[in-house]
TrEMBL record:
S-adenosyl-L-methionine binds at residues 68, 93, 120, 143. This is tRNA (guanine-N(7)-)-methyltransferase. The keyword Transferase applies. Catalyzes the formation of N(7)-methylguanine at position 46 (m7G46) in tRNA. It comes from Shewanella ulleungensis. Its EC number is 2.1.1.33. NCBIfam families: tRNA (guanosine(46)-N7)-methyltransferase TrmB. Pfam families: Methyltransf_4. Belongs to the class I-like SAM-binding methyltransferase superfamily. TrmB family. It catalyses: guanosine(46) in tRNA + S-adenosyl-L-methionine = N(7)-methylguanosine(46) in tRNA + S-adenosyl-L-homocysteine. It is an enzyme of class 2 (transferase).
Length: 238
């Protein structure tokens, strides 16, 4: 499970924009992770700038672009990029060992359609991603902040989902997954109240895990122990 961002929210769930709203988590890199960053960052790394990315220039083509916030160690993101070479993938992670592990896997898999940011997700989303440019935004297993008094710190809040909506194309999808049922209920409550979205679930609740989201080792172990995972997918309609 990955922390999505260290940005802070106030008691009303509003994102607090500060000059330094985050701290990059250096962590302890393994030799392999360090070597992977050195070898693959020039081709796959994206340095943060407050100007919108030119996706055609970055990927050398026009294609549907998928953005994942907080990809952890990146194994499932690399799997997705490898399985869908016709799409572009961008991952954001503040934890440096995760960047190293992701780049090591990506190099081994020889994927060419993946780029990564080592930066705060809120800043990248707000400033570096052009409005209406994403086919899908993925938020998998964000920090659940499971204590009730901390629920306002959850990233899925009304202001955040409207920022996501702005970045999606019409018909683009915001895909969330969590292994905390209470968080899935919170996600649904926020999304059902959000303007400009439609739930892709035929029951108006959660969806079955779609083929494009790989089953993680952590999730497979959870299934064996009877733990649930909830996928929620909302489409931008306006």
């Amino acid at each position: 499970m990955s922390d999505v961002t260290t940005a802070e929210f106030n008691e009303d769930g509003k994102y607090i924009r500060k000059i330094r709203s985050f701290v990059l988590r250096e962590g302890r890199l393994t030799k392999g992770q360090s070597q992977a960053i050195e070898a693959h960052w020039p081709a796959m790394g994206l340095d943060y700038t407050p100007q919108p990315l030119d996706l055609i220039n970055v990927f050398g083509r026009e294609a549907d672009t998928v953005l994942e916030i907080g990809f952890g160690m990146g194994a499932s993101l690399v799997q997705m990029a490898s399985a869908a070479p016709e799409q572009n993938f961008i991952g954001i992670e503040v934890h440096k060992p995760g960047i190293g592990a992701c780049l090591a896997d990506a190099g081994e898999a020889k994927v060419t359609n993946l780029r990564v940011y080592h930066h705060d997700a809120m800043e990248v989303l707000e400033h570096s991603i052009a409005d209406g440019s994403l086919a899908r935004l993925q938020l998998f297993f964000p920090d659940p902040w499971h204590k009730k008094r901390h629920h306002k710190r959850r990233i899925v809040q009304s202001e955040f989902v409207q920022l996501v909506r702005r970045k999606l194309k019409i018909g683009g999808v915001f895909h969330m997954a969590t292994d905390w049922e209470n968080y899935s209920e919170h996600m649904l409550e926020v999304m059902n109240a959000a303007e400009g979205y439609k739930n892709q679930s035929t029951t108006g609740t959660v969806v079955e895990r779609p083929d494009h989201r790989p089953l993680t080792k952590f999730e497979a172990r959870g299934h064996r122990l009877g733990h649930g995972v909830w996928d929620i997918m909302f489409e931008r309609t306006a």
